[in-house]
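Class, carefully examine what follows:
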Amino acid sequence: MLTFVFEMRLSLNMIERLSKLIALLTIVVLVGCSETSEKNITYFGGKIINPKVNYVVLFDYQTAIDTFYLDQNNNFLGELPSLKEGLFYFRHSNEHQYIYLKPKDSVLIRLNTWDFDESLVFSGKGAQRNNLLIDCFLDSEKEEKQFFSFYDLDPESFTRKVDAIEEIKLKKYKEYTTKNPDESENFLKVFKIALTYPLYGHVENYPLVHRMKKHDVSHEVNKDFYKHREKITSSQDSIIYYSAYRNYVVNNIYNIVYSHGHKTDSDEFTIDLLKTINHKITNEDFKNRLLRQAMLSHFYRQSTCQYNPKTFETYFSLSTNSSDENLITRLLNDTKRLNVGKKVTDFRITDYNHTDRSITTLIKKKNSFVYFWNPQYSSRDYINSRIYYLTRKFPTIKFIGVKIDGNATGRLKKIDIKSQYYLTPNSDANEFLTSKMPRALIINNKGVLINGYASLASDNTYKQLKELSKK
């Protein structure tokens, strides 16, 4: 009989989590050692505390390998015959995290969905690698907060900060390779990426974020600023979905385009970005995702109904995903449904007492901001914080929130329910929301549309609201 035992972790986080790991000892795999060796079976299991659904799905890139169902104690265990070594990820409800597996590993996870990443621990054969990777992930999240202030520094001071952190990370890498001389090259590659690529991503972010925060173009960087690029191995399609690698690739592309001198809200920037994505990314699925995201960002950066046909022609010439192309087409058509400079045509929205209300009656003689949101695409936390900020910044403007494809559940908790509504299928508003993507209308006190495709995050929206509030 084989009983899982714990392997010692390299990080200090192990000490803090040791008490949580003890619970995993209750999960025992009833399989003979010789039988496991002969069949080359890999085991994956664990315990989910406060589960949101009754299963865990293991993925290899976009392909679901297997689904493991929780028992009455919220434990699960599965066999994976003939599994090839590599990086995978598992998903529970809308959360996911990465896991590195080798043939004959027996890896258990334990996590609490209330604190998904921070509570995640691994035990069993193969756990040490995965505890290293989750520690890298958590460390990179902490560094995000550090670097927010580092972006204020001049290039030389910023580089010194980066070099100091990199030295610590490479020391960890060397210590591990010294203690584990037989570790596979494939895992060492992933481990080094997990350690260093988030750091290099901050370097790629520096020029744009520094300028945005400091409004200073005098701090130019030289080629030595990007010395990390000599260490980068590009076109690693096998791990393109790994966040540490993927985020670096995206940051690098945006930085290259930004260095060409385009304004980030311009058509020139988006066209250059689309072409650069097409040139640098070989994985077709990932390329399509980035092309789609570039176009969606273009809509929300510009925050206007006006559009340049050349930008869309470029996108459609490069994308090979028909579903994405249909979405962008619907977005484009939606912008044409409302006419800036003319009075808004009436449509009905429903309040949380199930009463249909006329939008023209609600906004009559009031400068208004009508924002449509979709929980599939919008973070409730972001909308709450942004609307809270805008309503206090512009108290004379009437704010109306409308949930797309909504019903009397799932409202925004931190916003006055009297200013919240939802759309029923028979509302005429659905005619300009065929994409189901978020958008907002800025309307003056005469009922005239000022902007038919405003974005909560856009500087252009803020400027228009500021100007409207003076009238």
